[in-house]
Amino acid sequence: MIALEVGHDLYNHISPTQTIAKEYPFILKVVKDLAYCFYPIRAFLIILIFLFKNLSRLREQMQAFKSYLAFLSKATRGDCPIKRLKVMSVIFFLVTFVVHFLWVSLEWSKNGGLLPLRKINWRRECYSYFTFCLRDYLFILLWTPSIDLMFFLSQQVIAYAALCAITLLYVLRSLQAEIHSATEYHLSMSPTGDVSRWMRMRRKVIRWTDIYTEVCGAVREINVVFGWIVFISVGVDILTTFGMSATLMTSTETNLNYVVYNVCISGVFLAYATVPFVPFVLLYEMSHEIGGVLQQLLWEVKGHSHPNHTQLLVHQKGCCHVLSPREDMLDRLEGLAVIVDKNVLAVEAAGGLFIFTRQHLVAIGTSVPTILLLLREMLHRSRTQSNG
Q1: Where does the chain cross the membrane (predicted)?
Q2: Is 378 among the domain residues?
Q3: Is residue 125 part of a domain?
Q4: pTM of the model as a whole
């Protein structure tokens, strides 16, 4: 149905028999008309990919994350992180539902003439592109389960991806705390220590390596399952933001409610393109932080903070077999540092087209308003030329 309206508008632009006043650029009109086509397409593609392309891998991933939750429970000696994850999932659900419900309610109220946002009602009695009469309430009953419900479910898919990243963040924070604790413990001990001390440290390093490599595998699974999903989500939400903004820019409506409404809706879809992916950014930054604490631990273990300790270790290396466990532990620790350095935990979109970093989200948040300002300037010039 929305395609019928978009097709009608496009035909009015390209048909030589139509006399349409070119008050603004053609591309701006197309983006405005497609605004209400973008978010149904987004929902359909996300659900399609999630359910049919990666369903088998998704089951394996869920089993893996159950093991991570078990690790969290043991590492924290309780279920506090698990409770937080449950609370976050409920919050994601409620926020996405409330925001979309409010938008849909306002949208139908606006088009139905219940709110003073427009002067005319574009669908007073019957839907104009059907040969039979389809009143507003019937149109809502047809549109809501097929479009709005699917969009809400697609939001839950994005929320699930974010919760997967948050789960890994809890694991990495526990790992970071253990490494930091080991560094503090080493600072309080003798530079050489006994065999049992280095054996305990060696077991810890092996465990840290296993944890980090498992997290790397989980991030790769996230990229496989959600790579194209997050790409579609970000791209289409940005296009919807442009469409909603174009609706405001091309309108001659001076009602303050209308202006505020369109600005808020544009901000909502811009938030959809950025806020849910903040856990991906934190995951990327956490891997760098773990690399930093590992380098600090290596610095202390090698005795670089205390030159006298370094000389003692070098002197004893060739005469005492007691340091053999220390050297073995040091080799493994250096290996872990290399693994962390070479395997940054980056969530990629569309097979590596871009990765989610702080710079990426800032670029989206700044480039979209910049492009909108350029479009506004184009619109102003177009109107000036048409009036001149």
Answers
A1: 34-52, 87-106, 149-172, 225-246, 258-284
A2: yes
A3: no
A4: 0.82
